[in-house]
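Backbone-to-sequence.
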């Protein structure tokens, strides 16, 4: 899922090497993988893609646009071609070689991808609840201030966007579970 660490901080967080080996092993065994936010960055790195700090942090409610490929994808087919997603990341990644781009946003070209038939990464969040958003805004208030963002606005906008996002999340996750 997520955290304040970065994939490229393996010297600072040596456990990241174990995480990457675990993902690499799952890829070799063609096990289903779903990496969300930091998990998508780990998956991209395990596939050889560069992960690096974006030009700006993408935090809060921003539009996600699905690609034409997503319209035919087992997880994303039938979902709206564009919706407001929840984001909380500063790092981004290049599309892994052989990966299929599923979604983008105005700030981040690679919001979601699929590798093979069973490995997915989504930088945006489909799983959040209002309680989680409240806790994130409270816990990371300093990060929001530094980024010039208003936590109250993020929480207020959740009342507009969260129910639609959760519906999409339930559908996507239900499809992913069938892969298990």
């Amino acid at each position: 899922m997520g955290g304040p660490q970065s994939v490229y901080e393996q010297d600072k967080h040596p456990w990241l090497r174990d995480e990457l080996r675990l993902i690499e092993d799952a890829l070799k065994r063609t096990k289903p993988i779903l990496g969300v936010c930091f998990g998508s960055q780990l998956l991209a790195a395990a596939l050889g893609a560069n992960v690096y700090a974006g030009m700006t942090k993408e935090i809060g409610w921003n539009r996600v646009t699905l690609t034409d490929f997503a319209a035919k994808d087992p997880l994303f087919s039938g979902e709206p071609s564009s919706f407001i997603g929840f984001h909380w990341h500063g790092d981004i990644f290049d599309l892994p070689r052989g990966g299929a781009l599923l979604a983008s946003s105005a700030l981040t070209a690679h919001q979601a991808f699929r590798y093979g038939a069973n490995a997915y990464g989504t930088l945006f969040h489909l799983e959040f609840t209002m309680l989680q958003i409240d806790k994130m805004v409270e816990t990371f208030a300093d990060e929001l201030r530094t980024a010039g963002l208003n936590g109250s606005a993020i929480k207020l906008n959740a009342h507009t966007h969260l129910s639609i996002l959760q519906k999409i999340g339930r559908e996507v996750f239900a499809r992913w579970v069938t892969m298990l």
